[in-house]
Amino acid sequence: MxxxxxxxxxxxxxxxxxxxxxxxxxxxxxxxxxxKKFRDExxxxxxxxxxxxxxxxxxxxxxxxxxxxxxxxxHPLVEKxxxxxxxxxxxxxxxxxxxxxxxxxxxxxQIVLGVFEQKTTALRDVRIGSGDVWVALDRIRDxxxxxxxxxxxxxxxxxxxxxxxxxxxxxALETVRATMGSVFAVPLVKTSSDAFVQWxxxxxxxxxxxxxxxxxxxRSVSYAGKPLVLLxxxxxxxxxxxxxxxxxxxxxxxxAGRADSLNLAVATGVMLYxxxxxxxxxxxxx
Length: 286
Ligand code: SAM
Prior knowledge:
Blueprint: H1 3-6, E1 16-19, H2 25-32, H3 36-42, E2 44-48, H4 50-58, E3 63-69, H5 76-87, E4 91-95, H6 97-104, E5 112-117, E6 133-138, H7 143-156, E7 160-164, H8 173-179, E8 188-191, H9 193-201, E9 206-210, E10 216-217, E11 228-232, H10 241-244, E12 249-252, H11 264-275
Parallel strand pairs: 1-4, 3-4, 6-7, 6-11, 7-8, 9-11, 9-12, 10-12
Antiparallel strand pairs: 2-5, 3-5
Helix pairs in contact: 2-6, 4-5, 7-8, 7-11
The protein binds S-adenosylmethionine (SAM).
S-adenosylmethionine binds next to α11.
């Protein structure tokens, strides 16, 4: 380990500490981040894996604590990330496998995890330009669905995700896992349904709702060249009437088999690829 990183082992921020006990208060605090209550209290969340931690640092997210397994000592990228974390004023913890397993609640955990400050965008700060696409999710409940939507929004070059009403926490461990790092690249807005209704009044672009009773084939709408928000309904209840009534169009994705509906994240993916059809190609970026 680089001497800058190893230099001081007192445990103060910007320094390195070795921990083997689950009873250590710092470890207890990190473990508590499995619960939303404590994530909110600490305004923090956990991201697992070297790639995610590097992505987050590259994108300017604030790291509070870097945790790495003893077995990662000597790994050049881990050393580098530890040095960056120390330079950023974070606490760096070298821990036993047992501690890492307990923190992530997973056998064979990643060798590195970071505790980051939560960051969201205020609805009033959202600016949607011509050709920009945002996704608004009404009361999304499933962390895997939310993570998959955030990842897909990132992949197609859409601009952000609005979480409308009582949604699953985007900073839950399972959501962050499912984003594969895109949680750090995609602006997230949390809003109440009422605030979204108000915001919509001042939004001059297209609000396209997806609905199982939609009369319009999603492929027949021209989405390109205008500010666009795709509004997706809750997994079990779909879009409620007051939100459906706000939409410029209610589109449906045709289905042929016995399934009642598509999975929310799959439907969002289908819509995003249609909306971004003209913007994406294999030869030109973005
Ligand atoms: N039982 C719910 C209902 O009646 O709407 C099913 C909701 S579906 C699992 C979740 C969301 O995915 C829907 O609200 C809609 O936004 C989108 N969705 C799923 N299948 C769709 C389809 N065939 N056409 C349009 N949207 C669809």
